[in-house]
What we know:
alpha+beta; 4 helices
Amino acid sequence: MSTDLQWLLIRKYNSFLVKKVPEGPTFSREPGNLLNLHSHKYSGLANSKTIDIQNSESGLQITTKKSKASPHAVRPARTTAAVRNRSGGRRSLGVVASLAKKGYRPDLRAAALGRTSALLAAQKEKKASPPKKVRGKKAAPSTA
């Protein structure tokens, strides 16, 4: 089945749609959708080549769908690459950029880098804010 026909079938009704505002954008929770926007370009269901980036305990998990796999397979063929947390942001962004740039889906390169950097930012621990200094009249009685 062609990807265009698949998109026409799942465009209006599927279980991953998120419709919050009638006039606003329609979002989608499907796996392989990097921006979570409901469109044919970013769809993880209707495209033969998809890139999925998820957070895992060990780091980032990058999954790609093999386009040459048999359509009669029980489970769609996927390739998984993992980038450890301690590898750093530059390494993980480089892995994602090289994967998208190799001709797999170069149009999704910016979206894949954006999702990777957002997941890396979410993994970082927040710094503790320093205690506020008491100034003015409130400071005078405490020092005296």
